[in-house]
Design a protein that fits this description.
The chain has 139 residues and is an alpha+beta fold. It has five helices and five strands; from the N terminus they run αααββββαβα.
């Protein structure tokens, strides 16, 4: 069944959603999407992929993350199992390999309350990124 907020349902949209669902829980760039589609014989131009991804963001089906000026925007399919309504999620970016990880941590979530209560500052966890080294790059 199509999302009621969807403007239209096209074959390109279906193929894109199918791919995003298959990588649920991972962050992908528009370039990743294009490479996958090309590898699997689906001819969708890069500009169309960008437009479709932005449309899915507008519909609330996909999250878009802009981590920094040196990295391409990342997109992530939002499924009900991995993203509960109102759940707070931070991100960790490995400076070695560039991997982007989700971080769900109650102790870090308490920082949001502290910053607001003690410093009158509202933190946006979707735009909060911790930089460091992932387990693979530390070894």
């Amino acid at each position: 069944m199509a999302n009621p907020r969807s403007k239209y349902n096209t074959k390109q949209r279906e193929v894109l959603l199918e791919y995003l669902k298959s990588v649920s829980g991972r962050h992908v760039t528009a370039g990743d999407v294009c490479a996958y589609l090309k590898e699997h014989g689906t001819a969708i131009g890069q500009a169309t992929v960008y437009r479709r991804l932005e449309s899915l963001v507008d519909e609330g089906i996909v999250n878009k993350y802009i981590i920094d000026a040196n990295s391409p925007a990342c997109f992530e399919y939002i499924d009900s199992d991995s993203h509960a309504e109102g759940e707070i999620c931070f991100h960790c970016k490995c400076v070695g390999c560039g991997r982007l990880l989700h971080l769900h941590c109650d102790e870090l979530a308490a920082i949001i309350d502290h910053l607001y209560d003690e410093h009158s500052f509202r933190l946006d966890p979707k735009r909060t990124v911790f930089y460091g080294s992932c387990e693979n790059c530390m070894n």
